[in-house]
Structures
1.
Amino acid sequence: MPRPTVTIVIPIHNEAGFLVGAVERLTAELAAVDADCDIILAENGSTDGTAGLAADLAARRGDLTLIRLPDPDYGAAMRSGFRAAGGEWAVNFDIDYFSGEFLQQALGLAAGADIVLASKRATGSDDRRSRFRRMGTMVFNRILRWLFRSSVSDTHGMKLIRREVITSVLPLVTSTKDLLDTELVLRAERDGFRIAELPVVVEEQRDARSSYLKRVPRTLRGLVGIRFRMWQEDRR
């Protein structure tokens, strides 16, 4: 049986001091995964040496591709990476949050799932973040359940996505910034794609780089906007 092909999409922004070591650690973890993997680095609006370091990695490695976007936008970078992904599956990793073990386990569920989520709230997960951040994840999930009747326990973080989901659902997703992956999961759930969840260990490798509190108003506005657009679509 042929090995599955997987494209790993990693948005990067101002990661000059972290990028090379992180890619080396990721490569070491991927060596133990039973799949043919390639990596897309989606650099977006960096103002340090990230773009140059990423270009050097891409020039030296046949399994790594660099995409460059002019403005800092995590969601837009993820969208560009997903569009460029050539594997049967696409994976969303962050440069400071990835796991070859998760990928191997997720591929083990591939026969019965179209999306496999690494859930920080699934039974068996070990979320070692601060109590404040754990509380934020819980509240966010409760809002999703209330607004969308969603049954998933987490939409942010690592996920394995079948190419057919990206082809079918991504063109409908309008969110950028922090909510592109959330809208993608919510729309896939609404459209009947099969979603599985895996428990994970979550331990931050560094302090958060953006203010959690500053993101709250933008996130709430974004979720209301997604709900309104999906409601309009359901009425047609």
2.
Amino acid sequence: MVQSPSHPDALVDTLTCLADATRLRLLRLLEQHELGVAELCDILQMPQSTVSRHLKLLNDRNWVVARRQGTNNLYRTILDELAAAPRQLWLLAREELAGSAAFKQDQLRLARLLSQRRTDAQAFFADAAEQWDKLREELYGRSFVLAAAMAMSPRDLVVADLGCGTASFLADLAPHARRVIGVDNSPAMLQTAAARTEGLANVELQQGDLEKLPLEDRGVDAALMLLVLTYLTDPRKAVVEMARILRPGGRAVVVDLLRHDRDDFRRQMGQSSLGFDPPDLEKLFTAAGLTNVSCRALPPEPQAKGPALFLATANKPS
């Protein structure tokens, strides 16, 4: 944790970090998203040597942390761990510079980068729609589907399958639920899902982004995400939306990839991240207002070729 500047040396350290426009821009970007050096160079329009030098200073003084993804480092801020005084100084600096031309330009380039990430994921699903079920089973097996279903008992529920894909799980769930709502942002996936669920009167399919769901507040008893979060540029928003649509006492269920180091796999699958560590998932759920959070690894199936999976569950307070 960055210490409170209660003596001159600590104060000088804090002011040093905030006394450079490039470092302020970096902190603002990394406060919003985890980004790699190449992405930061693109946004800031600066050479790698310059960006890396500033990142090293911020990292050495515990304003940012890094983790490996393949051959690259990804950076994010740890501003929530700052002592009160450094955090107050950062918030003041951010407010003063919010309207600056440099900050505005950075936001435009960040939005472009995040849009490209979404486009990459959508392109993958457009190409994979017809083969998705076979590919998913080959990579991850089928037992995770059963684990997710068991986590949502009893079955007489209104359930939202968020990122429903081709509706392979949704179609199996429909006979055991009062109503099932499938949401996906891929038209190709939804076309296959519509054909698969034709004739199921209690199934409703909607196109929409999981970071801004087209569903009403407190409208479902259970919300499910199967192999979805790794494709999202902002998983935090998706979990917040998941919590929003749950009724009090409702159940959230997530199955996704545990953190791994197979960057070639991530690129091949069009994913935005290398999976999640259970403590990070627990923080996302807790920050979204969910309680009774549980996250456990699922035993890998013998024939599964993809990374191992986890099952996470939580409840919306009654």
3.
Amino acid sequence: MPKKKTKTKAKKKKSTAKKIIIVESPTKCKTIKGFLSNDYALISSRGHIKDLPKSMLGVDIENNFKPRYIKIRGKAKLIREIVTACKNAREIFLAPDPDREGEAIAQHLAEELNPNGQTVKRALFYEITPEHVRNALAHTTTINENLVNAHKARRILDRIVGYYTSPLLWSIIKSGLSAGRVQSVALRLVCEREQEISAFTPTPYWTADAEFVSQSKPPFSAGLFQINGENRKIMSVDELKRLQGLLVSGTQFSVTSYRVTNPKRMPPPPFITSTLQQEASKRFKYPARKTMFIAQSLYEGVHLPQGRIGLITYMRTDSTRVNSKALGELRQYISGKYGEEYCSKSTREFKDRKGAQGGHEAIRPTKITLEPDTAKPFLTDEQFRIYTLVFNRYVASQMAPASYKKKEAIVSYQDVDFKSEEQKPLFLGYQLVSGDVVDKGFVPDMNVGEPATLNTIEFTEKHTEPSPRYTEATLIKKLEENGIGRPSTYAHILQTLFDRGYATKQAGKIKASELGMQVYDIIIPRFSNIFEVNYTAKMEKRLDQIEIGNEPWQQVVKEFYDPFIITLNKTKQEAEEIKESITEKVNKNCPKCHQPLVVRWGRYGKFLACSGFPDCKYSENLEIETSDKKCPKCGRALIIRHGKFGKFLACSGYPDCRYTENIPHDAPCPMCNGEMIIVNTRRGKMYKCKKCDFTTFYAPVHEKCPKCGKGMVMKRGKVSCPACDIKHKKK
């Protein structure tokens, strides 16, 4: 009997041992769990589990740049849980994202698991669908050392630049700033565009738009095309006056050219990371970071009636390639939904840009039968927008080209030519889905040599303009065209510029800030080669070579480090001199020690500080915002100052008088009509009544509630009554 019990126990233990799949995201866990049997257990690593330490370089320069990876703070407990869960696993599948970052996560997980004797397999999930996941688990691979090394090299290069260059900025400008290997190149592009705009001198020019009548045909419009056979505008006042005298109503022109063509428009390829970010920026004004967040949620899985499923393939890619099976399904879908004539005659293949890795497919829907309108009830508005973009772009890529009828006529008089164009669609083709149909202009049927009479003409003065500031879309396009960064880094690069205060967005355009320009002026002249567009692009190519096993990562790092450290040491010696050269002086002395005041940068922007710092720590606001209130202690004016949690009122007699108070809000208390003050907290602005202590995070407004007569607040873009809200909650 005892032996029988032992056997039963052993059997039970064996049957409960599961196959463990480790992914980064808890959301991905939920999706995958939904279409696998109970034999599998899903665990999330919640991103990276190891990284270089924050408090030190973490790279042994003398030992061939060996990195010192440590467990990320707060992840030790999670790692123990993963190791414990995997202890008796039948099989372990490491399935982080299929890219350099994911491969590094898989490597670090394997390092923690291998000491316990488990054998691990690498599973690559390019889409989160039942068929694909099961296929990936059936056809596992091993961790790609070349990918790990490429990630290692990039991480070490970025750490070396950040660790050594950022302190330079701290000593010269202020603490909290950073320089980065790719980030500083992006900043360079933004700042150099700003310099172009500042240096640009507008030049006036004139255009001419006219209406012509040809025999008994309807009138048509035409624009100035050529002067003396040269395609140009009117560039001088003298030429303008000459043409105004020459081209008057009734002047007889002659048709010198007339042609009809049938141009075709070809569809664009499916999205890659950069083009998706660009299109979402153009269409919806989404920042790149937001687009990637939404795309990640679509990739990881959405709840549908048939279960949870990933709607799009992996969203970090630079290849337009699509597998033949998916293309076959797509072409069947197009023929069935729109008709054979709307499907391209043969499977269309798109050429990747030079340097594209091609390891991942283009971004496409995982199920071509799951149309956006069908999925819409189960998506947020933002998810629906991005999914529709991806779906329509993918469908359009294999549709027939759009064809047009284009008419073009040129009418001439003496040395002046005007051109008229018409473009009308004949067959929509892929534009039936993409919606970018062109329908413009009108040109009547004409014959060369027939007369055309000038009816009216209008001259318009304009001015040449500099190259426009980058938008997120155009900056990403510039980075991609120059081979700077990778699909996974574009959003992070841009966000860092905004987070550091190096750039701001104005009407959707990226403008270099004063701080950004100052960082540029310090870094770029001294590290011009390292933070140069072509140099950074070459470094990206070398990282790609490491990825395919053609270059040893240590050699690539060494060839970067050696010239970098020489430049760094030279700049360190000049730090005080640089600081002195950029220090802005004002004609004012410190009220405490009478030494000159100078302009410094702080956490909240520029301020005036004593040049005798650190012996004298006096400081004051650079631009004083006044108020109409007086200090109740000494009678002097109260001014607006900036503190850790925002603005507050302080006595202008500081440091003799240290009185402070909160800034009052313009609307009264909704409850008692008393004075409201603004209290800045870690959670944001809070509004507090001085009379009844009512507090709210929503700004009080002057409107009264039609139900109870109390005051209202602005809550999530709508006016709301807090008194009625409190009554409703009590009920």
4.
Amino acid sequence: MGAWDVSITSDDTVADVVGHVVSLMKRGDSLLSACADAERVYQALLDDPDDGPLVWLALAHVQWKYGTVAPRIMERVRADVRCGNGLERWAEDPQVLARRRTALDRFVARLELPNPKPSAAPKAVSRPAPFGEGDCLAVLTTEGTYTAAIVLKADNSNLEYGTNLVGSLDYLSPVAPDSAVFEQRQWLYLRHGNWNGAPDLVWYGVHGFRAERKRFSVVGQTKLRAGDPASSNSFTSWKQLGVQILLCRRARGV
């Protein structure tokens, strides 16, 4: 875990705890119930001298944002800030440490006053995976040529963050791919750089799709086969779909 600024929310642990609470509230849990669950889930961190204070800061932050800070959490935050708990990671740079102390003091001062305009409880926004299993995609590359890809999975288990598993084909042409290209299943294997012949098989989430969607066209459907690739540990943005084929061709000198 790490921090990228001195502000309270610019920290991985704080972001994780707040995200946990918000996720439960989107499912219909009350603020207090969601915070109680977060305490249970992050119980192991509460005794840690560095991460424990961050958990309390996160709970105080999210409670103030959506309602009222529980007295026991407020008192814990006051005590941590008063005693300098959780500041060891900032101690190497006196100037940064001073800025962190100032941020904490301001945070506590804000918590001491009721929130005049608490935010409404967050609601889940449905963002399904853009494509269905078996969709055949014609992908316009940045060079104005076309490549091809097959949608192998559509995972909508997370209501807000649907994902597609997409396998790229070894196809590059000024002409959009036809059905024969997809039925031939000539998967794209990455032999440049450090890829060591791995297939271009990646999960793509919903973020960034809107900006790239004009590059993709569903030009048909194919029945998925038992031998088709079905798993990947790689995740990236839709901006990257169609990039690897260009890198492969350049590596081949084509």
